[in-house]
Amino acid sequence: MRGTADAIAAILAAGALIASASGCQKRQPALEYMPNMAYGPRLAAQAEDPLRPGYSVERPPVEGTVPRDLTPYRFAQADTTQAMAALVNPLPRTAEVIGRGQRVYMNTCVVCHGPRGDGQGYIEPLYPQPPLLFSDKVRNWPDARIFHIITRGQNLMPSYASQILPEDRWAVVHYVRALQRAARPLPQDLPAKARAAGAADSTAAAADTTGRSASR
């Protein structure tokens, strides 16, 4: 009996010790191992490396390695025809995708192409005006050609492959289509009242032309 009582007492004492220890918070380590590594100086990736004067802190990737999930773009800048034949916009034209393309466009493309795609970006007139994104030429381009230009660049426009992810480039293409429709809307894009007013104007103009023809 005494042995059992001693065992129970030992268990209760251990439980009380654990319960009291769980309420403690260890704020300072008893011993810091290599504190210089734990509290080293914080440097931005673009800052000059104090150990390599003239170079940034950020190290280039190891030669021959590629980022995870990277799909290499196999078309060179001059391979426009091949890119148009092989590439198809994988994203549906939804409000969400167009909104995503708008965000990327307003962050990256607007500087040159302007908020409306009319080439009136913030760099004007310091640099040559980019072509209109809603011109007949660009309107008739397939999505793949616009994607290829964003990826490889064209004329004075550099490649934006490193700044814009591939899926975001396709979303930008959808937003460019929205800018084209906004600049030159189709009849079904206009509100019913505007369509009715346009039809009335056309009818009046036709009647006026007919009346003048008959009076001659």
Structural summary, described in words:
- By secondary structure, this protein is mainly alpha-helical.
- Helix content is 50%, strand content 0%.
- It has eight helices and no strands.
- Helix 3 crosses helix 6, helix 4 packs across helix 7 and helix 6 packs across helix 7.
- The longest helix has 24 residues.
- It is elongated.
- 14% of the residues are buried.
- The mean pLDDT is 85.
Entry summary:
The protein has 216 residues and is mainly α.
Counting DSSP E segments of at least 2 residues, the number of strands comes to: 0
Ranges with pLDDT <50 over ≥5 residues? Answer: none
Largest sheet: none
Q: What is the N-to-C order of secondary-structure elements (H for helix, E for strand)?
A: HHHHHHHH
* Assembly category: single chain
Mean pLDDT: 85
Shape estimate: elongated
The assigned structural class equals: mainly alpha
Distance between the termini: 132 Å
Rg from alpha-carbon coordinates: 33 Å
Measured by DSSP, the beta-strand proportion falls in under 5%
Number of alpha- plus pi-helical segments: 8
In helices, the fraction of residues equals 40-55%
